[in-house]
Amino acid sequence: MILIYYLNADDLNNTKRADINVVLFNRVPKTGSVQLIELMRNLGKVHNFDVDVDPQQAGIRPLLDEYEESDFIDNVENIEDGNIFVSHVNYLNFTKYDKPRPIYINMVRDPVERVISWYYYIRAPWIFVPNRRKNNRPMPNAQWVNTEFDQCVMSGEKVCTFIEGSFLERVGDHRRQTLFFCGHNERKCMPFNSQIPLEIAKRNVEKEYAVVGTWEDTNITLTVLENYIPHYFKGATKMYYSGLNNDIQNSNPMKPIISEHIKDLVRKNFTREIEFYQFCRQRLHKQYLALRLDDLMKADKTLGEFNNIARAVKR
């Protein structure tokens, strides 16, 4: 019962701290973001809002310089109130540029499962063939396509070697989930599995994000979205289970089951990325628990009022 004195849904809700009624979903790749976009589009038909998805011809926006950051923020500021903007972009500090803050949301996923998902995603023919044609690139070699993730890890190939503090990999290799919550400072945010990016990412989630959910806690995520951002997400649970839950977007039948032994080997180099993921889940659960405690307190108050009335009638 001590938790009742420390958990309050209103205290954990950053929606009220936003300066404009625009949701910015700076989606982390391979976290089920397409599924959430589909849900939001369906909710938009009910609640009369639009979901604008950044086309991003090159896929994921890299680290932005200050001019690019300012330009992106200006674009978000000019979005009509009551709508949602979606982009694969790192966290942007609107206050730094004296611009009104939007309502930030995002999704996270177990970081090892993310890199496995990405590994097979970019090797799927329906992904690399269209990209090859669009960007006039050569076809990948057969060995690259056919090497399984566990083989890649055990052979020590560079793409499957996750070295703490490394800067060498491309931003889009998806080992850095914290990067999407840390920002665009390469020196502070890029070192893989390092303490400074972890702390910055945690601080930004705590202070700036209304909700950071995960499909690994589907019902909790939907409940928190419904209650913390009701203008956009009222009825999200009912909408999701009306059929969207059976239509998983970007499912990859080519991805095999990876053994726990291989996953454990990889997890040893993902300690801080895992810590960040668990931090986000813990915050999500706190938000959910705060809602339940509020309900209990309201129910207790209602019961007390009912008992008072009953006593008065007996007199």
Key structural traits:
5 strands, Rossmann fold, alpha/beta, five-stranded parallel beta sheet, 315 residues
Characterization of this structure:
The longest helix is centred in the C-terminal third of the chain and has 44 residues, at 271-314. With 315 residues, the protein is of the alpha/beta class. The protein is globular, with a radius of gyration of 22 Å. The model has no long low-confidence stretch (mean pLDDT 88). It has one domain: Rossmann fold (3-Layer(aba) Sandwich). Helix 10 packs across helix 14 (271-314). It has helices at 33-47, 66-77, 111-121, 125-135, 142-146, 149-155, 179-182, 186-189, 195-208, 218-228, 230-233, 236-240, 260-267, 271-314; strands at 23-25, 51-53, 84-86, 103-107, 209-213. A 5-stranded parallel sheet has the order 2-3-1-4-5. It has 14 helices and 5 strands.
CA-CA gap between termini: 33 Å
CATH topology name, in short, is Rossmann fold
Q: What's the story with the biggest beta sheet?
A: 5 strands, parallel
Give the strand line-up of the largest sheet. Answer: 2-3-1-4-5
Can you tell me the CATH superfamily?
A: P-loop containing nucleotide triphosphate hydrolases
Gross morphology is globular
- In DSSP terms (H or I, runs of 4 or more residues), the helix count works out at 14
Radius of gyration: 22 Å
Helix- and strand-based class?
alpha/beta
Provide the domain count. Answer: 1
Q: In the CATH classification, which architecture applies?
A: 3-Layer(aba) Sandwich
